[in-house]
């Protein structure tokens, strides 16, 4: 089973990367994770400390990435933004994976009408734009980070369900599964204890690729104001807040978090594709 | 004495779609097998051997007919753990593909241990039993720590046989277990099966397209053509005095001294005229 990446960024980065590029990407992701965990210690400034004497400053030794419209240090905000951005994508994928893997496995296991019904359900979900789920979820739960995560999670779940179903069908056709049955192992145990663990290596590579997509989708939602709210410095929200400067020719506050998103997304894609090659099941 | 296996009027058809009836894979098939006996099932590719084997072990549901193990008629998929464990002890199967028939995540030891645990072997006895099983399939104990991808095809097939034997089944179905192996490894596995049968008293159902291979390990042979048994008899009789032209054709198909491909074609043509009408 090979991994097909989704979306423009993923497609552009699916080509096999050189080992050097792979380690560079690992480094980038590592940096983002360190920032997410240690933001309070490594950020030079308080991310929400305003300084009206220093609005829209150019990058300098005091402010490496400059300051924004409220005089806040952009570097500190980007560092502090790592946590909500990464956690959001993790929560999104966790939710989507739980739903998707359940649907995909049950479909592959039960076949017949159960599979047919689940296929219809996922097709319908698939056809809905992710944004629509978010709007629906907001209509019920009001806006906020949780809303964006669940809404987008519903959009991602069918993709994961389809993928899981495909690899589960392939797996269950292997004779070792029949051998387990003949040993007297019941269906649920067989599925949970023996088949699912064999799907994980393939699944994990795919999920890392999707992680980039999830991060980007959430950033877009936050940009639109559906998710994280100020004073959060979630990256998508930072782009949104920095937009005002662009008209005045000051691109830094919007461009820098935008670039950070792009770089992290590309890095996770490269890692995901490599990982799925590496973990690809041996014989 | 009751037979260990008794199969009566077994039938299976695979429909192309729900409306269009497809090919009949197995048709009105019956045979019996005594304790520690070995029966061979031979036939060309597509003759329905695997379908028969899968029905015997309960992986494929027959359209008609009954399968009895030790006088007890098999139901399709009984519920409950005890029923499943009892059925496991009735029959086990080893599959053709040595690459797909082991769980790639588990070491040989874990795989064997899991089977033994499930079938309530005393935990203090598990270690001894694993050593015995490895010995009986001719594997060195250093391979216990190996995972399937570190083993050769022949070694994997031995592990698969050991796993099946760990359940201590009354009957072992072997579907083309040597077909993916080279000739010398094939011979080793055949010798091994003969030895295991003599020591444990397990009955064998040995499925293969190769009549010569079947002849080496069985007492009787059932020849299948298009899902039907066209000849059934003791191995010696079938090999030496085939009653049916199809069997004769199978016999003459094997390349050997004095082999003539055109004779095979002749026999096939003659046979098709009689059988297919
Ligand atoms: N699941 C299935 N669905 C549809 N047709 C099937 C299925 N399984 C087997 N068949 C058909 O039934 C017939 C018998 O197949 P089977 O696998 O039993 O043959 P075989 O004797 O084992 O052949 P081989 O020596 O190639 O393994 C074939 O025509 C095959 O196409
Ligand atoms: Mg077959």
Spell out the key features of this protein.
A: mainly alpha; MetI-like fold; elongated; disordered N terminus; B: 277 residues; alpha/beta; Rossmann fold; 2 domains; globular; binds adenosine-5'-triphosphate; binds magnesium ion
What do these coordinates show?
The complex is a heterodimer of chains A (283) and B (277). Chain A is mainly α. Chain A has helices at residues 7-13, 19-42, 74-110, 112-127, 130-141, 145-172, 175-182, 187-223, 235-247, 252-279. In chain A, helix 8 (187-223) packs parallel to helix 9. Chain A starts with 6 loop residues before the first helix and ends with a helix. Residues 1-5 and 7-12 of chain A have low confidence and may be disordered. Chain B is of the alpha/beta class. Chain B has two domains: 5-243, P-loop containing nucleotide triphosphate hydrolases (Rossmann fold); 244-277. Chain B has ten helices and ten strands. Chain B has helices spanning 49-57, 81-90, 108-118, 123-136, 153-166, 183-200, 211-217, 235-240, 245-253, 261-276, and strands at residues 5-13, 24-33, 38-42, 64-69, 72-73, 91-94, 171-175, 203-208, 220-225, 228-234. The N and C termini of chain B lie far apart (41 Å). Bound molecules: adenosine-5'-triphosphate and magnesium ion.
Compressed to H and E, one letter per element, the order of chain A equals: HHHHHHHHHH
Helix content of chain B: 40-55%
Overall structural domain count of chain B: 2
CATH architecture of the largest domain in chain B: 3-Layer(aba) Sandwich
The CATH superfamily of the largest domain in chain B is P-loop containing nucleotide triphosphate hydrolases
% residues in beta strands of chain A? under 5%
> CATH topology of the largest domain in chain B, anyone?
Rossmann fold
Oligomer: heterodimer
C-alpha termini separation of chain A: 12 Å
Which regions of chain A contain 5 or more consecutive residues with pLDDT less than 50?
1-5, 7-12
Q: Which CATH class of the largest domain in chain B?
A: Alpha Beta
Largest interface: A-B, 18 and 31 residues
Label the overall shape of chain A.
elongated
Structural class by SSE content of chain B:
alpha/beta
Task: Please tally the helical runs of chain A, counting DSSP H or I stretches of 4 or more residues.
Answer: 10
Tally the structural domains of chain A: 1
Proportion of strand residues of chain B: 15-25%
Largest sheet of chain A: none
Rg of chain B from C-alpha positions?
Answer: 19 Å
Main sheet overview of chain B: 6 strands, mixed
Bound small molecules, which ones? adenosine-5'-triphosphate, magnesium ion
